[in-house]
Specification:
alpha/beta; about 25% helix; eight-stranded mixed beta sheet
Length: about 450
Amino acid sequence: MNTRAQPRHVSTASPTGSSNLRAFVVDDDPLIVDVLTHHLTGAGYQVTGYQSTVAALNDVLTQKPDFVLVDIMMPELDGLEFCRRVRQHAGLAAIKLIVVTAKNYDFDRRQAVVVGANGYITKPIGSDFLPELQALLSPAAEIRYWGVRGTLPASGRNTLKYGGNTSCVTMSFGRDHMFIFDAGTGIRTLGADIMARGKRVSGHILISHPHWDHINAFPFFAPLYALGNEFEVVGAGHGDITMEKMIGDQMDSIYFPMTMREFGARVTFRDIGEQQFEAEGVKIRTLLLSHPGRCLGYRIDTANRAFCYVTDNELFPNDLPQYDPHYRKRLIDFVKDADVLITDATFSDEMYRKRIGWGHSAVSEVAHLAHDAGVKELHLFHHEPDQTDDAIDDKLKQAQNRLAALGSSTRCVAPAEGDIVSVALEPGLAAKPRVPIY
């Protein structure tokens, strides 16, 4: 599949500075205190260093710094107990606690989360320290596109701008865990990116429905075969056919040379319907969509943000007998006030009239939905395989023209394969751009 060499970074917010932020550095090694102080003061932070967690805890209670960097292996009071005691005080809830340690064990990472740490950075301190720290201090949701096509992959000189892989999108919240939406051919590139990082990963793979363009690259997702990784595959069963069976059957020896027994990762399955559940501290809601078979849309809510992934879905215009005002109202309620809505915009307005009942939407209907729901940013997705880059550009213009005619404040973009979108998760903070690996 042809993809562009230089992915864009598309950010809905601009970077924020570090001036006037006060930091405590707590480590019993004076050299580490000096190194961290050097990095932080050079970046504009105000820094106080400590070699005692007891002394630092007393000053945290009275001085309330903006953030604290603390080692785990400390005399008197270890770093995890330090974090636990800080979190016992409701008035200190705004202080960011970042563990900086040489202990690179999964157990200690999990314990740091339990005691209330906001982040975990491993020594030695290198050139990536400040970007990693700043990402933790200004937490952002990062959305990345690995495949934006629908139905079939597309290749050739006319697909270089938007890419040719089918549906796969990731969302992460500044943690090691990721949410992966669908397993089209884009998931293979995602897998290569993960493996190149050389770190263990965990994630939820949220399947919209089992049509081929949403599951057929699942067996090519390399992290599934690596020990130490962990994934839960979530989606709607179809009658007595579970999600596990749907995935497993396409890896039957007739169709594929390896089975799920070859997975090195811990892989579990969960069948869901239209419901609400929680994963990794975020709320996830689902909605049954207007598409052949059981197809789910997903809404992820954090404390301050909402993100929706709604593909595949057919919005019938109100001049057609299939128009369902009740369903449209339910869909508006589902995506209401979303910061980002990623949704099916398969057809141009002209092409849709020749494809009514295929289970996909016309781009202007999608724009109208986003406006009525008060969506902040609309992302056009699931492009028809015969559409060239120019045709997708034309669809984008149609959507933007419809929004302009409505006097809408909704911003509309057409993300390309490899694009990244960052959205700040806390009021007053802005997302910091990150450079793609490839």
